């Protein structure tokens, strides 16, 4: 036997055994109690639960008989216990002793205890004359209802919002520490190899190559800062940032332009200082731009830009990177300003066989890496290949005398016998000769580089989310990358982007936490410290092969692998157009064309949705107000006088113009009823253009011309201020109205329609008169009214509150009430407004769930209430009566469902 016992207030009750171990709230003190098994059960749970009930019923019966006389005994009080008595038979139940006497043997008194016997109950053919429920019309104690917040499966918090967070900032030791350290060591060595390759790419321009050691410094410093800072700040802790191929390719064009402007006008120290300041300043400005985008929470907008437009530019960058690698392989001097003629000279040299033998090792290794890592990113495999080929090349050059073989051991030119100098030392030495005007004249490169970092980072972060298996906030990543770039610039490092290949390779080596990035950054910086010893051991064909591998990977990844079955034909055209513009006219024009085309396409595609999400009619879309049937018929017939437009997105000048055109078209439509009320719902509007006031003034002119009412629902603050300052809102009335939401706006318009048809205020009717047209068996209504309890509720008084126990339903005879939902932040939302003839709280009869909303009277109301216990008693006495009541409730719920379906259908159009 299970017992509910509250230690706080002493309340105790026997409950069904299936509730053992479950939680429930005490009906008296609302404390949570665990139901336990009674160690000393009584004879039966039935006797324990209803001990003393017979005496209470007997006393009640004696008092009732004394007040009503023997005629009052024509009806009996229903036994509240669960028994095996068949109440549908004609046998008689004795209230005193519980004896069941067959009908044919029953007299006027019980043969067992001698108490006065009532007549047998007949329920087979019940009507109003046969049903006497007068003994059930008195007040009864409130039933005890178990709080179902504690479900049988202990899912009390099943409705709570479960938020799956991506790894937090600073999750250094996530995952296995040895694996993180191992992956950091591998990624650090690979990062140093790539830093050497990126230094070669940045020095590809004629004249810049003599500053190769300084280019190595800025790339290694940037690589180290990117690995450490981004790992600690981002929400993808295994991700690595650095001067990637796209960023460095842009810098190699930028530095070439700066050098050409300085050549012959400034001595060497001034040229070097200007170049290094250009790199540092570009890092800081690009980082600041990324940080601002993340701070303004505008990073998600970048996701709207078609990937193919960006892919065309990156594919063009890949072509330049391949050409740069070939330039180093064959010792070709390309004039990057007129690439077409340089490319012609390059083809001519190849046909003559010049430089082919020198290119073979780099081409072979680059193509091998490209094919070997085509479908996987594995830093350990890449490191193994780099170390083995470096050892073979250096060993071959040391052991063999053949010129072709010994060329394999040749180190990167301009590194030999050149000391490593930090950027700020060189900047201080030539600070007075820095040509700031040259930086200003080439400022477009800074903007183009920032745009490339922002566009490529969006796509790479999205792909890293798939690797991590958790979404991240793109705004947080942009802020992290921005701060990392600022840090790189402050120490003289190269601008940074997210490296997808090295990040995935780091992950597949076992990295899960930021410690791997920290280790990788430290290892890479250690390589710079020992560069004079390490660089001579790296054959030049290794970084040349890495450049070729990186360029081919960009072309394949962005030009071909980005295409999916969802790629539209126009996206393919944009991909190749941006690619050709970039490859033919240069990277700067390519980026400018990409950004312009991306903005145009994004605006066009978003504007295709239009400013209006739904156009609705008052005939089918109604307010949440339960009205009388006669009023419903009027609204169905004349509802087209109400024209509803639900707006969406950012309302720009163009979308507002489209809105005006749609409104004018509806006002001029002669096939529908003339519009009297235009409702504009701004609930889903994210913002208004600065020129919105001008368009709204034009809208007001249109409203006055057609003499209609303009009703604004969920108006933004700036629109409210404009209407108030423009004098559109008048206390005495006018053609403009503001309402909290669409529901209140609809109610106001419906009331005006009903008022114009002289049906807004119906003559006062009693509840039986209102139930008669809709109740399944009108003859049962008088008997039903006998068991109802009349309740008078004053204005602003709550009938019940959200969260209270459910045990009764209410019928409205007069007055109006509002059903309000109270949210967690104490905000109240009106769900429905009910008036005469309506029923509410009916779900409390059919389940034990707590009240889902608060019902409060907006004026003095007269209600009729029936609780669950009374309904069960009537069901035993007159099941046909309760069956009709259930049918009425079902019909009411079905009508509500049908109306909701109509609303959903209209909203989906």
Descriptive account of the structure:
The protein has 909 residues and is of the alpha+beta class. The strands form 7 sheets. The chain has a 5-stranded mixed β-sheet, with helices on both faces. α9 (356-372) packs across α19, α14 (443-468) packs parallel to α16 and α30 (868-877) packs across α31. A hairpin with a 6-residue loop joins β6 (92-93) and β7. It starts with a strand and ends with a helix. The longest helix has 30 residues, at 879-908. It contains 31 helices and 23 strands. The model is unreliable at 40-93, 117-126 and 139-170 (pLDDT under 50). The chain has 4 domains: 2-49, no CATH class; 179-339 and 413-536 and 552-605, no CATH class; 612-756, Transcription Regulator spoIIAA; 767-908, Jelly Rolls (Sandwich), CATH 2.60.120.
Tell me briefly what this model is.
It is a multi-pass membrane protein. The protein is of the alpha+beta class and 909 residues long. The chain contains 31 helices and 23 strands.
Task: Please give the structural blueprint.
Blueprint: E1 2-5, E2 12-15, E3 23-25, E4 32-34, E5 36-37, H1 45-49, H2 53-68, E6 92-93, E7 100-101, H3 177-202, H4 212-233, E8 240-242, H5 245-262, H6 268-295, H7 307-330, H8 339-351, H9 356-372, H10 379-399, H11 403-406, H12 423-429, H13 436-441, H14 443-468, H15 474-490, E9 497-499, H16 500-508, H17 515-529, H18 531-534, H19 541-560, H20 569-585, H21 587-607, E10 612-617, E11 625-626, H22 629-638, E12 642-651, H23 653-667, E13 677-688, H24 692-706, E14 709-713, H25 717-725, E15 736-739, H26 742-756, H27 767-771, H28 781-787, E16 789-793, E17 798-800, E18 808-814, E19 817-822, E20 828-834, E21 839-840, H29 843-846, E22 854-857, E23 861-867, H30 868-877, H31 879-908
Parallel strand pairs: 11-20, 12-13, 13-14, 14-15
Antiparallel strand pairs: 1-2, 1-5, 3-4, 6-7, 8-9, 10-12, 16-23, 17-22, 18-21, 18-23, 19-20, 19-22
Protein name: Cyclic nucleotide-binding protein
Main location: membrane
Membrane topology: Multi-pass membrane protein
């Amino acid at each position: 036997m299970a017992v509910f016992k509250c230690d706080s207030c002493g309340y105790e009750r026997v409950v069904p055994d299936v509730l053992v171990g479950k939680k429930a709230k005490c009906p008296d003190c609302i404390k949570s109690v665990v139901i336990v098994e009674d160690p000393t059960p009584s004879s039966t749970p039935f006797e324990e639960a209803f001990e003393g009930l017979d005496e209470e019923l007997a006393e009640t019966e004696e008092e009732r008989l004394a007040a009503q006389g023997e005629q009052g005994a024509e009806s009996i009080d229903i036994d509240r216990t669960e028994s095996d008595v068949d109440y549908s038979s004609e046998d008689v139940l004795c209230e005193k002793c519980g004896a069941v006497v067959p009908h044919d043997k029953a007299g006027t008194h019980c043969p067992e205890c001698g108490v006065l016997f009532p007549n047998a109950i007949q329920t087979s053919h019940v009507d109003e004359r046969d049903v006497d429920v007068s003994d059930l019309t008195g007040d009864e104690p409130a039933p005890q209802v178990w709080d179902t917040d504690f479900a049988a499966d202990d899912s009390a918090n099943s409705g709570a919002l479960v938020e799956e967070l991506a790894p937090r900032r600073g999750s250094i030791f996530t995952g296995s520490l040895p694996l993180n350290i191992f992956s950091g060591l591998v990624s650090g060595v690979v990062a140093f190899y790539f830093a050497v390759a990126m230094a070669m790419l940045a020095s590809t321009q004629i004249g810049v190559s003599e500053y190769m050691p300084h280019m190595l410094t800025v790339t290694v410093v940037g690589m180290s800062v990117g690995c450490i800072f981004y790992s600690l700040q981002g929400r993808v802790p295994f991700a690595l940032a650095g001067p990637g191929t796209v960023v460095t390719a842009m810098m190699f064009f930028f530095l070439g332009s700066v050098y050409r402007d300085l050549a012959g006008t400034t001595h060497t120290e001034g040229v070097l200082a200007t170049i290094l300041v250009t790199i540092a300043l570009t890092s800081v400005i690009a980082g600041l731009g990324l940080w601002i985008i993340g701070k303004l929470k505008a990073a998600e907008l970048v996701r709207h830009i078609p990937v193919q437009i960006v892919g065309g530019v990156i594919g063009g960058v890949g072509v330049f990177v391949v050409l740069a690698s070939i330039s180093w392989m064959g010792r070709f001097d390309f004039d990057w300003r007129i690439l077409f003629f340089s490319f012609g000279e390059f083809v001519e040299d190849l046909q003559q066989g010049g430089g082919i033998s020198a290119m073979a090792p780099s081409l072979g290794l680059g193509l091998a890496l490209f094919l070997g890592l085509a479908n996987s990113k594995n830093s350990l495999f890449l490191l193994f290949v780099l170390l083995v080929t470096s050892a073979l090349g250096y060993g071959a050059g040391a052991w063999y005398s053949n010129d072709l073989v010994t060329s394999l051991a040749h180190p990167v030119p301009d590194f030999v016998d050149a000391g490593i100098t930090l950027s700020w030392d060189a900047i201080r030495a030539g600070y007075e000769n820095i040509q700031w005007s040259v930086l200003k004249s080439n400022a477009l490169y800074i903007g183009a580089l920032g745009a490339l970092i922002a566009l490529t980072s969006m796509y790479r972060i999205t792909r890293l989310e798939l690797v991590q298996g958790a979404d991240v906030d793109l705004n947080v990543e942009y802020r992290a990358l921005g701060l990392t770039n600022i840090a790189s610039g402050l120490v003289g490092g190269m601008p940074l982007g997210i490296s997808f290949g090295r990040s995935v390779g780091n992950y597949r080596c076992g990295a899960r936490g930021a410690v791997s990035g920290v280790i990788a950054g430290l290892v890479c910086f250690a390589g710079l410290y020992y560069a004079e010893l390490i660089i001579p051991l790296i054959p030049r064909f290794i970084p040349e092969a890495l450049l070729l591998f990186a360029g081919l990977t960009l072309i394949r990844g962005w030009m071909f692998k980005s295409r999916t079955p969802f790629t539209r034909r126009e996206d393919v055209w944009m991909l190749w157009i941006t690619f050709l513009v970039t490859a033919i006219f240069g990277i700067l024009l390519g980026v400018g064309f990409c950004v312009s085309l991306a903005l145009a396409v994004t605006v066009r595609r978003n504007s295709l949705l239009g400013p209006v999400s739904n156009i609705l009619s008052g005939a089918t879309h109604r307010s949440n107000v339960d009205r009388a049937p006669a009023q419903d018929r009027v609204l169905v017939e004349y509802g087209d006088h109400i024209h509803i437009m639900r707006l969406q997105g950012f309302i720009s000048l163009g979308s507002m113009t489209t809105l005006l055109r749609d409104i004018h078209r509806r006002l001029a439509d002669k096939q529908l009823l003339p519009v009297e009320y235009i409702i504009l719902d701004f609930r889903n509007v994210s913002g208004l253009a600065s020129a919105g006031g001008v368009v709204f003034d034009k809208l007001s002119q249109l409203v006055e011309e057609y003499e209609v009412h303009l009703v604004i629902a969920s108006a933004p603050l700036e629109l409210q201020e404009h209407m108030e300052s423009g004098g559109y809102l008048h206390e005495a009335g006018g053609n403009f109205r503001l309402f909290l939401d669409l529901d209140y706006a609809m109610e106001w318009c419906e009331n005006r329609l009903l008022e114009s048809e002289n049906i807004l205020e119906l003559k006062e009717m009693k509840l039986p008169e209102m139930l008669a047209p809709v109740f399944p068996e009108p003859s049962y209504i008088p008997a039903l009214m006998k068991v109802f309890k009349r309740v008078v509720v004053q204005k602003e008084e709550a009938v019940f509150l959200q969260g209270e126990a459910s045990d009764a339903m209410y019928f409205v005879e007069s007055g109006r009430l509002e059903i309000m939902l109270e949210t967690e932040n104490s905000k109240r939302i009106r769900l429905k407004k009910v008036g005469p003839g309506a029923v509410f709280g009916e779900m409390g009869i059919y389940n034990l769930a707590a009240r889902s909303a608060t019902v409060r009277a907006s004026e003095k109301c007269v209600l009729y209430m029936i609780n669950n216990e009374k309904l069960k008693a009537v069901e035993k006495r007159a099941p046909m009566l309760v069956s009709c009541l259930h049918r009425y409730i079902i019909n009411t719920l079905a009508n509500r469902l049908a109306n909701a379906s109509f609303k959903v259908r209209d909203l989906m159009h």
